[in-house]
Amino acid sequence: MARVACRYGLTAEELAGHFAVDDNCLSSPLAIDDRAPALDQTRVWAQACGVDPERLQRLALSKRYPRRSRSWYVSAGPEWAPSAPPRSTPVCVACFAADQAAGRDAYLRAGWMLAERCICPDHGQLLQDRCVSCHRRLSVAFRLRDGRAQPACSCCGLLLADRGGEGGRPHDALVRAAHAVQQRITASVNGENAEQEQFEKALAILWAPLDHPAAARPVLALWFNEAGWRCPYDVRHAVGAKTPLGQLPVRWRLLTLLALNDIFGADPRVDDTLPPAAAHLVRRAAPRQIRFSSRRPSGQALKRSSAEYEGLARQILADPCWIAAAKLPPRKRERVRARLIDAALARNWPASPGAALSPKLPSDEQAIQKC
Fold it and tell me: Is residue 330 domain-shared with residue 365, that is, in the same domain?
């Protein structure tokens, strides 16, 4: 779709908007879903391009990988974010160079959308998801050059070409190890066998919050064995996710696969016979909680009584950490108080069922501080 649109100096979304208007559709065009596009959308595209609608529909990811769930593809961002960032499609510039050498249009490979894919199986290179010029998340656009569609960064317009490993390349041994794990996951997820569940459990443990459900650091931090390590901002939304790989940048995906192989082994088994290192991580992992979406879920939330808030406040005041914080500066005291409130709320769930409320964590904090 993008290769057709670049012939007219447009993006695929812009051209889809023109087709929607031509089809007497007054509303904005549907978002383009690579996994399962709308039948009406592919019908209009096929009519405009003069191709068989069934042939176009077969290009959808759901047709190529019929057993793969949506969570095992590259995600546009955290589902609970109010406005997800543009999707960063990892690419292999060596594949683009091969297209140019063959004298054909460059094109995006379907395999680049797989959540576990971080190494190109054809060239053994780390996929690229950041522009080497503007350093933003890579969103690929196509430009017509010498009669062929060539890929470029949609932000700065830099043509994506193979520059001999610009930006650094991991050690070959690490690439081979990650590629082997990547192949096993691909075979498992596409085949929907028993191993898929084990891979999902092991990956969820690696990215589970460390010791506390509200923690920002994942269990993976223990594998680094670096004191004071803080989780980078661009991967925090993957902490606590059931299937985190599709939400991670490529280099973090590579790191996760290496940790998975090192901790759980070639065939992960999350059961009573865990290796010592894996068993230690499982003990440190907090239980996974469901993340709420930006839309408020249906149903009634539970409300705490005033007596419960007073009890939580007394627990915090009697906590040794709060007593010891009396000598700290005000800002550090506020941090200690916030951590103690989070811990108290996580340990004590509301006890009055069925009471209607539209709660947020800050309201709970204010109630405790008032007490």
Answer: yes
Residues 197 and 269 in one domain: yes
Alpha-helical segments (H) within 154-218: 172-191, 194-206
137 close to 235: Cβ distance less than 8 angstroms: no
Residue 99 lies in a domain: no
278 located within any domain:
yes
CB-based burial of residue 138 (10 Å sphere; 0-12 exposed, 13-18 middle, 19+ buried)? buried
Q: Let me know if residue 144 belongs to a domain.
A: no
Same-domain check for residues 199 and 249: yes
Which carries the bigger pLDDT value, residue 82 or residue 65? Answer: 65
The domain tally of the chain equals 3
Question: 174: which 2 tokens?
Answer: 């690490």
Q: Quote the tokens at residue 366.
A: 């204010």
* 144-152 CB contacts, 8 Å cutoff, 24+ apart: 144/6, 144/7, 144/9, 148/100, 148/103, 148/104, 148/105, 148/106, 149/2, 149/3, 149/6, 149/7, 149/105, 149/106, 149/107, 150/96, 150/100, 150/106, 151/91, 151/96, 151/106, 151/108
Whether residue 273 is contained in a domain is answered as yes
> 187-197 pLDDT, tens per residue?
999 886 768 88
CA end-to-end distance (rounded Å), the chain:
59
Which of the pair, 186 or 266, is modelled with greater confidence? 186
Q: Which of 14, 44, 64 is the last residue of a domain?
A: 64
Q: Each residue of 75-129: pLDDT tens digit?
A: 855 443 434 444 568 999 999 999 999 999 999 999 999 999 999 999 999 999 9
The pTM (predicted TM-score) of the whole model is 0.71
Domain interval for residue 329: 306-370
CA distance 59 to 55: 7
b (16+ CB within 10 A) / e for 26-57: eeebeeeebeebeeebbebbbeeeeeeeeebb
Q: Are 291 and 240 in contact (CB under 8 A)?
A: yes
